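Below: protein 1.
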Amino acid sequence: VGVPILKFQKEETSINEESLIGIAQGGKQIRKCKEAHDNALDLLIKLASLQTSFRELDEAMRVTNRRVNALDNVVIPKLENTMMYIASELDEREREDLFRLKKVVAKKKADQKLVDAEKKLEEQRLKNSQLNTVNENDNDDNLIIDEFEDDDNKVDDDDLVYDEM
């Protein structure tokens, strides 16, 4: 985006030079004055063009400097504050997520311990019930053996011998 620069130009008018010829070579002097005037006019036009260009460039530089100052003093600090705020919010969320993750892991560990304890308890119950079944079978066997032993130890009346006195 450039700055438009104005450029002035001289407008030529046609004047009959022969009408300037006079007595005692006065027309020559008038022609010299006219050429000097034309040169001065050309230089003035260049000067006016340059001065206008300098003013336009100066105004464009002022606007640009104001924009730069606005960026340096207003926009960039706002953006930096926004970035710091976003970074702090992201850090806070990260800490919250880490805290939640720790809670979830602790809950899972507690649940796993509970499940393990229930499994152990169930295994213990199963073991105890198997032992009780084995013990009952042993007791039944013992009872049967005891019955057989009792039968052997019984004394019939026929086996008894009474002494008569």
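Below: protein 2.
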Amino acid sequence: LEAVTETATHQTIFSQSHLRFVIPIILVASMTSSIGPVNSIGGAIFGSLITLVIPGLIAHFAGEKLLGNAAERAFQFAIVALGVVILCFGTYQAILNVAKLHVNHTSTS
């Protein structure tokens, strides 16, 4: 019974954390006339999270239990930092592209 309760708690936390990311994207997507810009911004954010930030954090927290050395810790921090930089840069570029599309659309109308 204890394992079932623990699994239910983990599923609740997992669902809540995903909803925190997905609900704002759904709200923005429902307010726009084109889903392309929302897709590019969401792709920039989730792409870097899935490929760099989350694996780096998993390695860091798993490494705490395995007592990794200082070089491994520095590498894990570098992976997370690179992921955050790419997340910021990718999101910035996606927002610039959306702004260009908006300016071009309003000037031709």
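The two ends are 63 Å apart (CA to CA).
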